[in-house]
What does this fold into?
Amino acid sequence: MRIEAISIFPEYFSPLSLSLIGKAQENGVLSFQAVDLREFTHDPHRTVDDTPYGGGAGMVMKPEPWGEAIDARLSQMDGVIDLIILTPAGRVFDQRYAEELSKSENIIFACGRYEGIDARVEQYYRDVESVRVHEISIGNYVLNGGEVAALAIIESIVRLIPGVIGNPESLSEESHNEIGEVEYPVYTKPAQWRGINVPEILTSGNHGAIARWRQEEAKRRSQR
It folds into this structure.
């Protein structure tokens, strides 16, 4: 999978060199690049924003640098490209969406700032062949920019790629799996901590009973 993120703060994505995602890049499972939007400006101040038409507070990101940046990335990619525009007005991201995007070959994240990206950018690329545009939100709240949202989505997507997680069985048992439930509570040694014991069933060795207990606990937590 090839992922690129366009941002005025490309250094925001340095955590992607860590942990399992970093190993996925080392092993060639994932290719990631952060692109500086300001490299596609042509004035001394490297301007990426301007006042909104119609008035109002804040600044809007200009379409010209975005168009040049996205075009430059598209020219380096083959096949279908998923262009993800991060916006509080987008479809709320969930595990099903992560599973869908984990099958993509190429993803570009457009990480807006200020009052957002000029709406014509989204409009234009919806008509470009081989590009699928997604407007995505990670929740009903507002961030300063799309970088944090992109990091969350990237981690959610990449961990579903075969070969990234060491034990693939863990994916089927975790929260928001195909059944849609959250995960059962988990415990490790010691058997007693600060006066609280691990549920006795988990130390019984009865794997059938343990499986039933976990299923019941997952259902209870999901309903709660």
Summary: Strands lie at 2-7, 31-36, 49-50, 60-61, 81-92, 106-110, 131-137, 192-193, 196-197. The CA atoms of residues 75 and 183 lie 42 Å apart.
